[in-house]
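Request: Have a read of the protein record below and say how the chain folds.
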Amino acid sequence: MAAAAVGAGVVVAIGRRASEQIVRPGAGAGAGAPVEEGAGLILVQTLAAGRVTFTRRPESLRRGRWAVEWEGGGHAVVEEILHSDEQGVTRRLVRADRGTLTPGTEVRFTPRVLLGDPAEALGLAFTDTSADGELGPLPAWHLDGKRGTWVILVHGTEADRQQTLPVLPVLDRLGLPVLAVTYRGDEGAPASPDGLSHFGATEWRDVESAVRLALDHGAGRVVLYGWSLGATTVLHTAARSAWAHAVSGLILDSPVLDLPASARRDAARAGFTGVAAELGALAAEGRTGVDLADFSRLAEGADLYAPTLVLHSPSDRIAPFSTVQRLAAARPDVVNLQTFPGADHAALWNSAPDHYTELLRRWLTPLL
């Protein structure tokens, strides 16, 4: 009997440890998405005018626009691959805006191409505001625009509002007012009462507060736009909010639609595999009290009424691509699925910035 109790205790302890990163994702820990970055750092081999050569690794071979960061707060941005062989990968160096990049520097690739607030990163005027959430004030960036439709931007897990910066220029050109919002657990926002993430099941009420803020300040309609679990939160909001009638569209970048599968993958990212990852997924469900039946209803699009643009990668290692395929097949009347082959989770813009931006422009234009 004692041995059984000890065994059960070990199982519970393993599950709890494996679920820790899932239910406490480190809100605001980084401006980008939880990209699979691999072990170790990448060495800068040489620097020349407008180019930098890295050791050859999957990260340095990613297509598109990426930042590299290094110890001491260093930050630089690189774009297309100019040359690649077994000795190294040479990419175009766009800028080195923080610190000094030198040969021998060890760097990490990250989607955080833009840092700071909209004015610092892009020269876009904005005001700090806040939504009146049920737990307290929720800071938000407000960018003005001439249209009556507002866009509410909801960042994803392991990210903060800086994740929304790359899409602000196209929204500004379209004249769309924007709220880039925070929710419980974010830096500067109230903590969740139990200190845990609830995968959008409670966080949606904070997004609803942003919808109310927009409507109170002249919005006629709103478009909800989220990344990763922010996209899942957006789905909750559109399905549950008393103001859902004001939602004219949804944009879902890498939405998490199969919670157990994503929880297992997240546990694996934290170093737990096999049975431990399964225990982590079960512990995450138990600790947060998430209703999986309700989650499944969202994933099936049962409560989806507004036009919805879904952006996803078949290579996504956090949110299975098959889930968005099922959603698109179930609701072809409202869902437009656009794929980004080879892209990382919630880093679709990085993989093809111009293509991503043009998709947004074309899809949003009829909603203006």
In short: Residues 42-110 form a domain with the Thrombin, subunit H fold (CATH 2.40.10). The radius of gyration is 21 Å. The CA atoms of residues 340 and 367 lie 23 Å apart. The longest strand covers residues 74-85.
